Each structure stands twice: as C-alpha cells, then as structure tokens.
Amino acid sequence: MNRFVDYIDINDEVLDALRFCNPVVALESTIISHGMPYPDNLSTAKDLENIVRQNGAVPATIAIIKGRIKIGLTPEELEYLATSKDVIKVSRRDIPHIIAGELDGATTVASTMIFSRIAGISLFATGGIGGVHRGAERSFDISADLTELAQTNVAVVCAGVKSILDIGLTLEKLETLGVPVFGYGTEDFPSFYTRKSGFKVDTRIDTPEECARILKTKWDLDLDGGVIIANPVPEAFEADQSVIDTAIEIALVEAQRNNIRGKEVTPFLLSKVKELTGGESLEANIALVKHNAEVAAKIAVALYNICEK
Ligand code: PSU
Ligand code: MN
After folding, report:
1. Ligand 2 centre from 278 Cα, in Å?
2. Among the options 49, 89, 148, 162, which is catalytic?
3. Is 308 annotated as catalytic?
C-alpha cells in the first residue's frame, strides 16, 4: 500500500474500517457520471452508500478526481461527478494518463477492481459488467473487465450482463479465464433488466455465508482473480423483455452505421438503449443496483465473520 500513497486519498470512514479489517463495499463511478441522468444519478449514489451502511458495511465510492484516486467520496465530490461533463471513462489502460494529466475519471468495473484491491477491499457492487460483444469474432471487442476478473481478487456483485453483448460467449470466456460465476438465489444467469438470459450459471448460492466461504477458499489457495455474483433484478422491477430487445437491436444497427469503435462502443450502446427505453429501464436500473449493494454488504459482513474466527 505504501508506494501507492502518493496517488490515493482514502476518506476517514473507509480508512477506519480498513484499519480494523471491518467490512467495506466498493461502488463504481461510471454509473454516476455516465450511467444515469442527473439528479437520479446523485440520489442513487447516496442511496447506495446508505444501503451499504444499513447492512453493516462501509461504502467506498471510487473515482479519479483531478488526478487523485479517491476511495470514498465527500458529498461535494459526489455532486461534482454527478454534474460535470468532463469526466472520462477510465479502464485499466487509461489510468496512467488520466492520473498524470490530473484529469477526472469515472472508473469502470476493471479500474474499480484495481483500486479496490490496492485499498484492500474484497467486495464491489455494480450494475452490469462488460463482456464479449456480439460479432466479436470479427471486431475482437472483448471488455477489459474480463481480463481484470481473471487476475484481480475482488468479488463483483452485478445483475448479469446486458444483451448488447453476446451473453453465451461472455460466459465461455469467463470459463476460460477461470472466473467463477455464481447465481445468487438462482440457476439462471440474469441479463440486467430481466431475471433470465436463457443461459444457466453452473453454481447457485443462496446465502452470504456460503458465498463468503467460497471466496475465502479461493483466495486462501492463491487462486487469484475475481468472482461474479450474479444477482437478478427484483421481480417487481423487471423490465419488459421485448421492449429491451427491440431497443438493443436498434442500438446495434446504429453503432454499426456510425462506425463506432473501441472504448466508445459500450457507452454508445448504453446511451441508445437508455434513450429508447426511457423511464422503464431507469427504474429497473436503480432497483437492481440497490439490490446489489445490499447483497454485497451482506457478503462483506459474512466474509469478515469467517475471517475473524
Ligand atoms: N454495462 C452496463 N452498464 C455499464 C457498463 C457496462 O450494463 O455501466 C460500463 C461499466 O463501467 C463497465 C464498462 O465496466 O461499461 C465496460 O466498458 P467496455 O465494454 O468498453 O470495457
Ligand atoms: Mn470494448
């Protein structure tokens, strides 16, 4: 940790928790800067932090502000991220130049995992992760989130992946990379807005304690890398599958027509889907992230309890 202090600011609440090895849950910032409109982004970010606290853990929202890695944000910093237009999407390869250039960065799943591990945080709650894009056999477009999951010891609680991706190929790639994929209370791998994707997970887990035992075992054995805990959107907030499917088809055609490439692909598809599905997708999105924050906090507490023994 010492050689990182020149780059990182950890807020007091998180630092206290880390010092005593108390449960901490990391939260990402892409959701705030790119994932939702203002003011829903800000109210959701605050709600997520409170949900983590109510479930016995300390929240650590992660971002880069003026070149400093922030682990835990002040209310002013949250507000700044929620309203600033100049926040850049930062995955692994973007980290050096955003920090050296003293710029603002919203962390993706990959970079939030990297900073979580540096700080000693094992649980991370988000919405959806990146994966293998449709047509990847020609475009080679496979998210850096997957290679991060292969090497960085952080468990990611998410609502699966959106079908802007090829879900089957994403699951195959995760198998190749040795990343366990668990269904939380389900055998079905969820597809973000909806509870099923047509694909199964190979392991179902039903309790935070069961999950914590598996995580401890993995990392005790030096089986480096992350874990995906796929937690389906609560039934009451599930979106209409056909509305989502139509929006995704349109978004994919528009991305192709506009020759969108590289790191712009995912933000382009996400914003098109958001635009085409409006309020319905936003409501599902907020509900599922809150549910993920709750489950991540419970697993962090369970992990603390078994590591204490
Ligand atoms: N998928 C979603 N919502 C998101 C993302 C992906 O359903 O917000 C964001 C996350 O930050 C994820 C990143 O880590 O996009 C992946 O981008 P790329 O495909 O360019 O690696
Ligand atoms: Mn990509």
Report:
1. 24
2. 162
3. no
Residues with CB in 5 Å of ion ligand 2: 141
Q: Report the amino acid identity of residue 275.
A: E
| Ramachandran area for residue 185 (φ above 0: left; ψ -120 to 50: alpha; else beta) | left
Per-residue pLDDT band at 309 (split at 50, 70, 90): low
Per-residue pLDDT for 1 more than 70?
no
Number of domains in the chain: 1
Token pair listed for 238: 């599930």
Query: How many residues can be counted in the chain?
Result: 309
Beta bridge partners of 4: none
Q: What is the CATH number of the domain that holds 235?
A: 3.40.1790.10
Which tens digit of pLDDT belongs to each residue from 243-269?
A: 999 999 999 999 999 999 999 999 999
Q: If you measure from the C-alpha of residue 265 to the centroid of ligand 2, how many angstroms do you get, rounded to a whole number?
A: 6
| Nearest CA, atom 18, ligand 1 | 143
Ligand 1 pocket (Cβ < 6 Å) reads 30-31, 35, 91, 108-110, 127-130, 143-145, 162, 192, 263, 266, 270
* Residue 307, pLDDT above cutoff 90: no
162 catalytic residue (yes or no): yes
**Whole-model pTM above 0.90?**
yes
Give the domain extent around 247: 2-308
